[in-house]
Amino acid sequence: MPINETDMLLAHLQDLAGRAAKTGCEASRFLTPAQSQSACEYFKRGWATLSFEGGFEGAERTRAVFVNSDWGGYDREKLLSALKIRYRPQDSLSHRDVLGSLMALGIERDVVGDIVCEDGTAALICLPEMEGYIAENLDKVGRVGVTVSKIAFCELPAKQENLIIKTDTVASLRLDVVLCAAFDLPRTKASELIAAGRVSLKHQLCLQPAKELDEGALLSVRGLGRAKLLEVGGLSKKGRMFVQIGLYER
């Protein structure tokens, strides 16, 4: 039976966990949200002490960190480096622009964590061993000249979710029902998307239209975008639940 990518990842993480028992601390490269979720599910059995470090509060891409509690804690600065990219305020750069320029330097995606762009600056997290290479070689993003310097974690900007808020009422908190409310879909279309494997719940593929959602549930529909169930309120006169849903700008 062929080994899939998730199995390979978990085997690698289990190896790190075993090594941490001897070295005190071991960490993976940056994981995607789906990979982190798989790790959480797998290691909740108590085989190792697992935490995640991404630099930003609520970081999407994080390193899985295994620690032998008998050895104490770990030094965050040995696991992550924070860099600031500066450019002229009149220029406009996006996450995609910065990531594309990093990839053009031959940098692999899993050695870089989250990237946050603001007017005139961008901040990113990377592996410490990549800090010098990025600072020395990243002098342009597209046609925009940039400078790169190391910063303290306290200087990182707060990550802000750009959400379009909508309020609706639903008959239940089933996945297919909330999907309809979030993306203005007919029930049959929502069911088709779920059956086709195009819907993820909390970064994991979900094929269960009747799955009940909780506040904070993150939905992703390939080809449509992402949404978060922000709040579940009281009942309307018709017995339907008020919900507040946030749609991520694409």
Question: Could you explain how this protein is built, in words?
Answer:
It is a single chain. The chain is an alpha+beta fold and 250 residues long. It is 26% helix and 33% strand. The protein contains six helices and 15 strands. It has helices at residues 5-23, 33-43, 95-104, 131-137, 175-183, 187-195, and strands at residues 25-31, 49-53, 62-67, 81-86, 112-118, 121-126, 140-141, 144-145, 147-151, 163-170, 199-201, 204-205, 218-221, 225-235, 241-248. The strands form four sheets. The protein has a six-stranded antiparallel β-sheet. A hairpin with a 2-residue loop joins strand 11 (199-201) and strand 12 (204-205). The protein is globular. The model has no long low-confidence stretch (mean pLDDT 89).
Q: How is the topology of this model organized?
A:
Elements: H1 5-23, E1 25-31, H2 33-43, E2 49-53, E3 62-67, E4 81-86, H3 95-104, E5 112-118, E6 121-126, H4 131-137, E7 140-141, E8 144-145, E9 147-151, E10 163-170, H5 175-183, H6 187-195, E11 199-201, E12 204-205, E13 218-221, E14 225-235, E15 241-248
Antiparallel strand pairs: 1-3, 2-3, 4-6, 4-9, 5-6, 7-8, 10-15, 11-12, 11-13, 13-14, 14-15
Helix pairs in contact: 1-2, 5-6
